């Protein structure tokens, strides 16, 4: 008798899915009678596989079928390993606890197979719903495995608007960043924007233009300089910014601002005496430790997670557009000086 002979192994949904030639999520929908649109032929294959293999839902699954699940899922591409976006998990976890739920987290590193497996596992545990999140604000294609489950996108959105999305308010963030400079009397305000097409690029530019309009200023495209969105991009733009005669600069993110600091220092210039600077992100490992500390606008990752849970539980609703935009608060520090002091 071999080592494993006679040992009973519990039949799982994955076994049924393999036998029936369908996904685990399809098996979950059939077993739990969720009302999802599953073809009759596929349903029959699942039922035959269940009978053949002797599959029986475990006690937990039986309870969850009644709707008593206290689990929420969060599937992320990389936010658990990024320096500041992991706050999404923190916010979602705390909000889930507040309402009596436990958050199940899967970080897939963008691997589609791992993502599908994580979603199937969560459906097998009959989660109340799933948050699907990305580490930077962008458009996504909704994973097929999420079909039929309650889903909210966090820090991303689907252009088709099939499910609600909770995203940062890029426009008002850009507006408030620019306003911090204009309110100190600066009128020659440049904007170092990213070259990468993204909601952040478009939204922050719109906010910059809106702030100029609020102060009766005419938008000058020459004062918008597209750069690589990192320290090297900010450093390389110093010459162009000085040639524009700008007295203040709004940077697309804190890393660009850090490069700008370095480039000015190498030319014997100082922030804010020679140039006032505002960043975006409030990546504290950068912003709070630059000299002088950087005025910036915070990406509200913690709040994105909290709002995502509230929308998923029906406590809060997205706008008619299907998106709930979360405020990006200004964080003033010491990188701005009044224009009259220059």
From TrEMBL:
In terms of InterPro entries, this protein maps to:
HTH_LacI, Lambda_DNA-bd_dom_sf, Peripla_BP/Lac1_sug-bd_dom, Peripla_BP_I
A single GO molecular function, which one? transcription cis-regulatory region binding
Q: Which residues form a coiled coil?
A: none
Task: Provide this UniProt record's keywords sorted from A to Z.
Answer: DNA-binding, Repressor, Transcription, Transcription regulation
- What Pfam families does its record include? LacI, Peripla_BP_1
CDD domains reported in the protein's UniProt record: HTH_LacI, PBP1_sucrose_transcription_regulator
Question: What region holds the HTH lacI-type domain?
Answer: 11-66
Name of the molecule in the record: HTH lacI-type domain-containing protein
Organism of origin: Streptomyces malaysiensis
Q: What is the lineage of its organism?
A: Bacteria, Bacillati, Actinomycetota, Actinomycetes, Kitasatosporales
């Amino acid at each position: 008798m071999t080592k494993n002979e006679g040992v009973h192994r519990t039949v799982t949904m994955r076994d049924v899915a393999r036998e029936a030639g369908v996904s685990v999520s399809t098996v979950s929908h059939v077993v739990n009678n969720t009302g999802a649109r599953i073809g009759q032929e596929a349903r029959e294959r699942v039922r035959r596989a269940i009978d053949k293999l002797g599959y029986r839902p475990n006690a937990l699954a039986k309870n969850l079928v009644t709707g008593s699940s206290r689990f929420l899922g969060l599937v992320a591409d990389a936010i658990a390993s990024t320096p500041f976006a992991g706050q999404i998990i923190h916010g979602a976890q705390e909000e889930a606890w507040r309402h009596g739920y436990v958050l199940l987290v899967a970080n897939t590193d963008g691997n589609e197979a791992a993502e599908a497996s994580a979603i199937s596992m969560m459906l097998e545990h009959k989660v109340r719903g799933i948050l699907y999140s990305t580490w930077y604000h962008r458009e996504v294609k909704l994973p097929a495995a999420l079909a039929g489950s309650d889903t909210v996108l966090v820090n991303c959105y689907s252009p088709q608007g099939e499910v609600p999305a909770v995203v940062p308010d890029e426009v008002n963030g850009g507006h408030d960043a620019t306003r911090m400079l204009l309110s100190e009397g600066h009128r020659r305000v440049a904007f170092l924007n990213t070259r990468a097409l993204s909601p952040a690029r478009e939204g922050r530019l719109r906010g910059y233009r809106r702030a100029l309009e609020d102060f009766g200023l005419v938008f000058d495209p020459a004062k918008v300089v597209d750069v690589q969105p990192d320290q090297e991009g900010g450093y390389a733009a110093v010459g162009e910014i000085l040639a524009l005669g700008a007295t203040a600069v709004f940077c697309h993110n804190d890393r660009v601002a850090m490069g700008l600091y370095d480039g000015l220092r190498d030319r014997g210039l100082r922030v804010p005496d020679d140039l006032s600077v505002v960043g975006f992100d409030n990546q504290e490992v950068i912003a709070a430790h630059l000299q002088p500390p950087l005025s910036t606008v915070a990406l509200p990752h913690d709040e994105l997670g909290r709002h995502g849970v509230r929308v998923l539980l029906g406590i809060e609703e997205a706008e008619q557009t299907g998106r709930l935009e979360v405020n990006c608060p200004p964080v003033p520090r010491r990188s701005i000086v009044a224009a009259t002091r220059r």
